[in-house]
Structures are given as C-alpha cells and as structure tokens.
Amino acid sequence: MVDPGSYYPRMRREEIDTVRVLWQEMPGEFTATLAFGVGARDEDVDQLGITHLVTRHLLLSLLAEPDTTAGLLETSFTLSGEPTRVGEDLGELAALVAAADLSGLVLTAQQLDATDRATDLDLDVDDAVRDPWASLLARRLGPTGPGLLRWPVVDPHRLTADEARAHLARWFTAGNAVLTCTGPPPAGLRLPLPAGPRAAHVTGPSGGPAGPAWYADEVVAPGIAVTATAGPQAFLLLRVFGTRVDALLERAGVKAWSTEWSTPVGGDRLELGLSLHLRGRNRHRDSAVAARILWQELLRLAAEEPTPTELATVVTRFTRPPAEDPQLRDGLERLGVLAAAEHAHAQAPLAEAGHQELFDVYDEFGDAQASAASRLGPADVRAAAASWLPSALLVVPVGVGVALDGMTRAGCPVGSFTPQGELLRPSLARRLRGAKDGLVLGDDACHLVAADGTVHSFPMGDIMLVQRRGETLLGNIRHGCLVDVSGFTGVDKLVTRVPPRRHRIAHD
To answer: What is the value of pTM for the model shown?
Structure first.
C-alpha cells in the first residue's frame, strides 16, 4: 500500500479512536468525509440493498443531513461547515453505528422510496436492469462481488433487524473506516466506532469463456470487457480505447456515447472496458456496427502501438484542471457545475489517499496511476492489450447478429430433455412475432423450451424474477443471463413459484 504521507507530502496523518484520519489544508469550507469499505459488491444476492437501508436508518436518527453515497465499493458520509459542529455530528454518527439500535428499522423500510437507492454506479439510467456493463459483470462473476449489480434490490420490508445488525457489525468498524478532512480534525473529535479489522472482500472467479467470446443478452446496447491487471497500463489502455471508439462511432454515423469502466473483482484484477449508450432510432443496425468497432479497435490496440501523442494527451487531460480543458470546460459551464468540478479536482488527491487506505484496488484511476503512466511508452500499452485480449467478452442485444473474426459465440448451458411441469404457451402477440417456444413451470426449476427443442433451465436456487414496466424477465444468477418471458399466457404464476426474495420490482 502506498503511504499517503510519502506520495502527498502536504498531507497529514493521524489516528482517532483507532480510526485512520488523513487531512490537508485546503481553501474553502471545512469538509469531512467518513468512509467505510463496504458497498454493493459486499452484499448477498438475497440481501441486496441492505447497506442503503442501514445508512438511511442511521441518517433518520441524525440532526445533521450529510451527503451520503452507497456505491460499489464504499459507503461514505460527508459533512461541511464550521469544524466544531462537523466534529459533533461525526461523533454522533459514530455513536449511532456503535449502538446498532435498529428497533425502528421496519418504519425506515416503510418510508424508503423503492427508487431511492443512493448508488454511484453510473449504470444506464433509462434501463438499469438491461445495462451492458452489469450484464458483462454478471456473466463473468455470477452472484458474487460486482456480478450482483445487474439485479434489482430486495424489497426492504423483507430484510430483518438481525440481518441489518450483522451487516453493521461486520462492515461498519473502526478498522474498516477512514476519515478525510480539508483541514485539521476538529478539536476534541471522538469516533467511538466498534473495533474491527480492515475488511476482506469476496474475490470474484477468474473464469468466463475461454478465448475471446461474444453473447447475446437482454441489454440496450453493446459492451466489451477484458480481465486486466490494475495499474498504469490499464489506465492508458482504457483511455486510448475509449477515445478511439468514440471517434469511430461518430465516423460511422452511430449516435452513441461510451462509458469507461474499471471494476475491481479481487486481488489486483479489474474488469476493464466500455459500455455504449445508443441514441439513434435504428438500434439494431447501430448495435451491430458498434460491436464490430469495439472488437476491431481492441484487436488493433493489441497488434499496433498507439502513438506517443495519444498517450501524452491522455495523461495531460487527466491531470489538468477542468477549467483548462476547453471541451470539458464548455460542457461544465453549460450545466453550471464548473466551480464544483474544479473543487472536486482540487480535492481529488485527498480522496485518492482515503481510497488507498481502504482498498488495494479502487474503481477509479488517480494521480498515482497517471504519474506512473507518464513514464510508460506505446510498447507497454500494446503488450498489455495483447496480454488481456484472450479474456475479451462482448455482449450485444438479443436479435443482433454479428460475425466477429477471432471471437466465438458463448451461451448459457442448454439441454434437450423434456421437462416436467405446467406448460405456458406463447400469447397470440408473441406467436405473431414468430415465437414457437414454451415455458415450463416445474417444481424445482423453470424451463424455456425453444422451437428446436433445446431447453434453457432456471433452477429455483439460481432463479431471479424481475418485473418492470409491464415486462416479466427471468434470470439465472449463476450464469448472469436474463430472458424476456412477458409474452407467455399465465406468466404471472411465476410470482408464486420463485422464492419471495427473488421476486424483484425494477424501478428505473
């Protein structure tokens, strides 16, 4: 682990009640962030949303209203104002965690808006359950770590106080917390959190298809991922890849933008890649074109070195303040958030130092990676791309046909047996679209039987039922897949067949 005091010479380090504290004198209002190393990746598939429920319950007991973020990796509380008052509020928050008084949790669950999951995951806001990056993670990792992100949260009324208390005790401890401040910690500050170690997180499997592969899924657009090693090579490769893909999409007439992802999955491994967001009307054509661009450009990076100018531009754009980037500045000014972006840029080293205290690998790149990247050359980037290329996994929307040289098609395991159970036939509307399949509701599994007789099974131990916008979607959490079964007569019978916590209502 990098010592923040050595990497950031102006930063100071203290310890209060065994909680690590990092601070640095910065202009503006005093701000303190108490962060815990727990997020969505640390939840169980049958407890998804429990971190948010617990934090909302704590906040309802506070007089202050801190900015709260419950993300993939961490949960944080940020307070600003007069230092003495901020210190009092931090102490009150720590005392609430230590008390673990969850007697009013049922009332909190009743007040919790099902759409109010305070996450910072940047999944497709229009159709979260169909987000391509969430699909890729679920496909690669199954029901562990970031592979959980695909699935909607459990109805909070089904979570118990005992479960919430155990979650607090495991993750919200002094050893799993760090406090960062934009000035000296308030005099007399106390942080009476329960004792506990820095948390160990579940490591996702390193499996997935052998060799580059693609698959079709219920997603809104294509996306691509590789299993990479965290570090400056990943930083450079992702930024060059994203810049090139955006330019090629525009040249091909595909109205889209991309989101860059670097998601830790255990040890020093990342899932690294891009997911796309399509804006054009012809999404079928655009998806096919975009999928080819994603794969061909990754191939090119593995075969040809990028130019030194490309690499220098990546580092320069990352390190300079937003106001000095003409394209970024104009967009931020139109949104009226330039000042906030400048403030966040100035505080980035403090946030990065806090992340280094909590995690071996974080889901954002920081100054340490950018500094190391400035010493790398084009050959380093090409070598990294070539090394990670065999792990490439690409997803396209169902119905999009692609022919990608060097990629095999992957699919969920299927059989040819005749399943036993109640047969649901396709509705007239589904038949008019050419469907000749059937859905069999068995005692231990549900089975989707295709027209050619192949059977895609969903065992009850792995099943997920998602209902949203009048649709019914059936998922297998082990394989990460999702199929649309809306067009079957009597499909609502699934609600009584699946385990209660596996029936999820998606709110987009």
So the answer is: 0.92
CATH topology of domain 213-409: Cytochrome Bc1 Complex; Chain A, domain 1 (3.30.830)
| Residues facing residue 19 across a β-bridge | 16
Nearest-CA neighbor of 36 among 79, 2, 70?
Answer: 70
- pLDDT, one tens digit per residue, over 31-65 is 999 999 999 999 999 999 999 989 988 887 887 88
Domains 4-117+153-181 and 213-409 are alike in CATH topology: yes
Domain boundaries, the chain: 4-117+153-181, 213-409, 422-505
Q: Per CATH, which fold does 4-117+153-181 belong to?
A: Cytochrome Bc1 Complex; Chain A, domain 1 (3.30.830)
Q: Which conformational region is residue 384 in: left (phi greater than 0), alpha (psi within -120 to 50 degrees), or beta?
A: alpha
Chain-centroid distance of CA 384 in Å reads: 23
Task: Find all residues with CB under 8 Å of 153, minimum gap 6, and list them.
Answer: 48, 49, 52, 114, 117, 504
